[in-house]
Design goal:
Layout: H1 3-14, E1 19-23, H2 29-37, E2 42-45, H3 48-57, E3 63-66, H4 75-78, E4 84-88, H5 91-103, E5 108-114, H6 127-135, E6 145-152, H7 160-181, E7 190-192, H8 199-204, E8 209-212, H9 214-217
Parallel strand pairs: 1-2, 1-8, 2-3, 3-4, 4-5, 5-6, 6-7
The chain binds pyridoxal-5'-phosphate.
Length: 224
């Protein structure tokens, strides 16, 4: 068994009720193919071009997650196949995803990305912006998306208390949204939080989807 497969198996054995998105960004097709051959097929990418290239070259039963920032004008490239988009940060983007999903006769699962860190460089909506989006009457007509939950990224810090509090606040906000806007639905259920450095804390704080790259595939080389 390859070390990639061992790493994946360790995580899923330790946390069987959490969905693991194996973050394959920057890694070549051969690594994804090897992972697939080992039996794992839930992959996350953060760039549309790279995601589309990989989709085209790999088996078609892979479950693809777009985890990085998405520009409205690029939705059309991933709408035919993407399983879940973790990075919805505006009504305009949500509307475009719905439109392109409809053109492809599909329903795309989406997560509302919430800004939980104290860093200014990370994308996502404030809690207020997210609630404004959910209060907009227009979204009731979006029949080709399924709002499945929220996503957030904690600060890049060694201070576990800061990270834990940010995850706690996301989970709390998720519960609040569920009560206020999704009380009649069982489909708003996902909290996507936790990466290589912090997924254990995230799971303790109620994560349902973790996005793990370097702990599985090793460090990324951005200069290739
Ligand atoms: C790269 C990335 C990850 C995975 O990061 P690792 O630290 O390698 O596990 C998770 N989420 C997002 C949004 C990413 O861009």
């Amino acid at each position: 068994m390859s070390s990639i497969q061992q790493n994946i198996n360790q995580i899923i054995a330790a946390y069987p009720s959490v969905k693991l998105v194996a973050v394959t960004k920057t890694h070549p097709i051969s690594v994804l193919q090897e992972t697939y051959n080992g039996g794992y097929k839930i992959f996350g990418e953060n760039k549309v071009q790279e995601l589309t290239d990989k989709y085209e070259q790999l088996p078609k039963d892979i479950e693809w997650h777009l985890i990085g920032h998405l520009q409205t004008n690029k939705v059309k490239y991933i709408a035919p196949f993407v399983y879940m988009i973790h990075s919805i940060d505006s009504l305009k983007l949500l509307k475009e995803v719905n439109k392109r999903a409809a053109q492809n006769n599909r329903t795309i699962k989406v997560l509302l990305q919430i800004h939980i860190s104290n860093e200014t460089t990370k994308f996502g909506m404030s809690e207020q912006e997210c609630e404004d989006l959910l209060r907009n009457e227009e979204i009731k007509s979006f029949n080709n998306i399924q709002i499945a939950g929220v996503m957030g990224m904690a600060s890049f810090t060694d201070d576990e208390t800061i990270i834990r509090n940010q995850f706690k606040s996301l989970k709390k906000f998720f519960n609040q949204l569920k009560k206020e806007y999704f009380s009649s639905s069982t489909k708003f259920k996902e909290v996507s939080m936790g990466m290589s450095g912090d997924y254990k804390i995230a799971i303790e704080e109620g994560s349902t989807i973790i996005r793990v790259g370097s702990s599985i595939f090793g460090n990324r080389n951005y200069n290739q």
